Amino acid sequence: MFLVGSSSHTLHGLRILPLLLLLQTSERGLGRASPAGAPLEDVVIERYHIPRACPREVQMGDFVRYHYNGTFEDGKKFDSSYDRSTLVAIIVGVGRLITGMDRGLMGMCVNERRRLIVPPHLGYGSIGVAGLIPPDATLYFDVVLLDVWNKADTVQSTILLRPPYCPRMVQNSDFVRYHYNGTLLDGTAFDSSYSRGGTYDTYIGSGWLIKGMDQGLLGMCPGEKRKIIIPPFLAYGEKGYGTVIPPQASLVFYVLLLDVHNPKDTVQLETLELPQGCVRRAVAGDFMRYHYNGSLMDGTLFDSSYSRNHTYNTYVGQGYIIPGMDQGLQGACIGERRRITVPPHLAYGENGTGDKIPGSAVLIFDVHVIDFHNPADPVEIKTLSRPPENCNETSKIGDFIRYHYNCSLMDGTRLFSSHDYEAPQEITLGANKVIEGLDRGLQGMCVGERRQLIVPPHLAHGENGARGVPGSAVLLFEVELVSREDGLPTGYLFVWYQDPSTSLFEDMDLNKDGEVPPEEFSSFIKAQVNEGKGRLMPGQDPDKTISDMFQNQDRNQDGKITAEELKLKSDEDQERVHEEL
Questions:
Q1: Cross-strand bridge partners of residue 230
Q2: Where are the domains of the chain?
Q3: Is 141 a catalytic residue?
Q4: Is 98 a catalytic residue?
Q5: What's in the keyword line of the UniProt record (predicted)?
Q6: Class at the top of the CATH hierarchy for domain 44-149
Q7: Can 259 be counted among the known catalytic residues?
Q8: pLDDT tens-digit profile of 138-186?
């Protein structure tokens, strides 16, 4: 609209009507308001729409883009940018517009609407524009301002939301993933990553973005929201872009940064909680059980072992999991909580995986290590206390023992306790009545001794676990030996302290009828025990043991033992040797 030029120029087709600055020196001197009915001395400005927010106002030397309708006092239109579908784009206050328009645009806000009444001496004066604007014409303009910028402008960044935790800020050469809405300065939308259903992914400072966006993204944190205003000379300049971004347009981007990493990044570790007394750290080859929450850098949760109510179980450093997690789990302690930040080149790379982990995504794992072990681990035994008196005899295979125990997982989850049953646990060591690791840990103990046992799963319940015990779980026992009795040799239910009588059958046959029924047999064995001449297998019901002994001797199962049937275990073993020979 209204560029300075010759008065011979006319409006033809879609050409812009020249705005001439043809002012007489005497006209420039007018400065007082005219009395009622007298000619106007200055531009009359009616601000009939003022936007609520006005971050900047037009000043002299600014570049503006605006639409207008130009009419005479009688309402007849003489020019309109709308008819040409082309905004006026020009610098104000430097003599390129008629003086009335220069003055009328000063102080305008973007999206403001004004009606300007321009007296002749601030318009085309006594000359007018041949065939279009008569001499001494008062001009009426309806103007809406759509854009304003200055060559001295820089990128304007406004933080709309900043997360409380900022692990890193965007730097040059970083790779970023972000969502954005792009608008012109008047709010007209021209593009949005949300409408395409995917983030915009690119390198910073490598020339892949317009310069203003390269600058505006610097210093952002993952999860941060920014408003970035970019002047056209740092955007698409005089040419614009396609049909959506006109020439000389300022651009406004509302940006949400989701992710940032650098191709040189390594796995980042942050210890959130470290238990006291960490004596062992995980190494490659260990088998680990851990819980985790996995999220993207903006906090979006993509997976959680807690939601499945089951730990993730795997070997560490053996390539069963993504390389970044393989690295991040090494060096952890049992019970430790750590945050592992994995760059995409050590996770799922450019392609991502599934519908929850996008390409080039940084992954954050908050990990709680429940336990770990190595397939070569033995039972770990730690003595907590021993009785003050000398201990000459310790528990061994075959002994019958009574002990109290508490059993838990390594994270402290309580599993079992003998104290719940108001009586100690009773077993014969080496009889395969308890898990192998516990059996081993109970050997070599003194009565009254307390131990802590750490039993790896291959010496406990293995990969499958047991009722109440997860698969591949390391078990923690605290045990106290309450009593110990020497066991009997394998295969024996009763042993004599001295050589038995040579008239053993006669001694058993209490009524001397040549037969020993169960009652006589039981009475005889119990008498030997009471008199200290022998002992039954410990840990068994005496009546049950004696009944088993009777069944062994009643070889024809007729309910009585004869002299021919009665044999000592040693005699049976000797006969078996002869049979084998």
A1: 251
A2: 44-149, 156-261, 268-369, 380-485, 494-580
A3: yes
A4: yes
A5: Calcium, Endoplasmic reticulum, Glycoprotein, Isomerase, Metal-binding, Repeat, Rotamase, Signal
A6: alpha beta
A7: no
A8: 999 999 999 999 999 999 999 999 999 898 999 999 999 999 999 999 9
Q: Model confidence at 318, in pLDDT bands (50, 70, 90)?
A: very high
Active-site residue 306, yes or no? no
Cα 151 from chain centroid? Answer: 44
Q: At CA 251, angle to CA 358 and CA 205, rounded to 5?
A: 55
pLDDT tens readout for residues 352-380: 999 999 999 999 999 999 999 999 999 99
User: Of the listed 2, 66, 124, 405, which one is catalytic?
Assistant: 124
CATH 3.10.50.40 at 268-369, yes or no:
yes
Out of 16, 45, 78, 91, the active site residue is 78
Same fold, 156-261 and 268-369: yes
- Amino acid residing at 78: F
Element containing residue 157 per DSSP (H, E): strand 156-161
Q: Which CATH architecture has domain 494-580?
A: Orthogonal Bundle (1.10)
- At 37, is the pLDDT very low, low, confident or very high (cuts 50, 70, 90)? low
Dihedral of alpha carbons 416, 421, 423, 428, sign: negative
Choose the catalytic residue: 98, 117, 364, 454. Answer: 98
Cα–Cα distance measured from residue 525 to residue 272, given in angstroms and rounded to the nearest whole number: 66
Residue 387 has pLDDT above 80, yes or no: yes
Q: Which of 63, 66, 68, 178 is labelled catalytic?
A: 68
List, in order, residues 6 or more apart from 82 with CB less than 8 Å away.
67, 69
In CATH, the number for domain 380-485 is 3.10.50.40
Say which of 42, 62, 79, 298 is annotated catalytic.
79
**pLDDT value of residue 211:** 97
